[in-house]
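thread: overnight batch results

M.L. [08:02]
morning all. the overnight job finished for the chain we discussed friday. pasting input first so we're all looking at the same thing
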Amino acid sequence: MIRVLIIFQLLMNINSLNGQGADTTAWVPMEELVQEAPAADTTMSFSSLEEEIEWCMQAAVKQENNNNFYMALSLYTSVIELDNKNIIAYLNRADIHIKLNDYVASAIDIMKAIELDPNYSDAYLAKGILHTLLYNIKESMNDFQKAIELNPDNYEAYFRRGMNKFKLEDYRGAIADFNNVIRIKPNHDFSFFSRGVSKYNLNDNEGALEDFNKVISFNPRFPEVYSKRGDVKLRFKDYRGTIQDYNIAIEFDPPNSEYFYTRGLAKGGLYDDLGAIKDYNSAIEINPTFSRAFLARGLSKLGIDEIDSGCLDFSKAGELGLMEAYDLIKKFCN
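M.L. [08:03]
and the structure it wrote out:
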């Protein structure tokens, strides 16, 4: 009870500091919080141990959502001191440790949760997430498989395993996992998006387009999906549709060189060389080593008879490692 009262005091002090414009995402020693902040009324009582635990859990979640990770860590520790068999508290604290880049402490809490209940699906999910962060992909796949065996409706385990398969370029395997997520969570936009990208990589353009349209119906403020749908339309040579989608993507995320580059390609497909050059200029301004943008700009300059300037762009693309630029120099610049 004394520890919880101290934490309650600190929470009240953090609220006071927030009102003074303090940065509560940075670590601040507890002693400084107590000394610098105004005193608070710590009058509080609980009718039962369960009520005290529930208060700490709710307060911890709130602090985590506010990015006050050290305070959340302390609150979850309080729960564990009150109930050392609280699996949720161990796993939530493990997640906080990950956010604080303390992977060893996270692993200890996860293994404690598994020790308390070897059949708890989410404990293996947490273990798999940690192994993924540590680039132990094989181990993480085993963990996600175990989580799914224990709970066939653990959609996050399917999603995480699907993302690992995607990274390994096992797109068909990834699609199978994303299908299971969608079976359990029919509105899971990230699964539709990731499945769409997997289909795109397998040249299933119609399937990809269907998934990207579905994502937009769920979440119209998802910039990446517009760019990916624009890529599909570019394959279909729907240049105007590509430009429309990339206009939206650029509005959401202006400093993205790839977005300007791809919109430039679509403008080139419509023989709008000046418009394409303008987009390639933007892409190069954002990323001065963007070799493909130099190459594409050189081709567009040839389209408006700026041969010398175009050849300089080919030369720059070659210097940046794009060997095909030298073939264009031989063809157009000698």
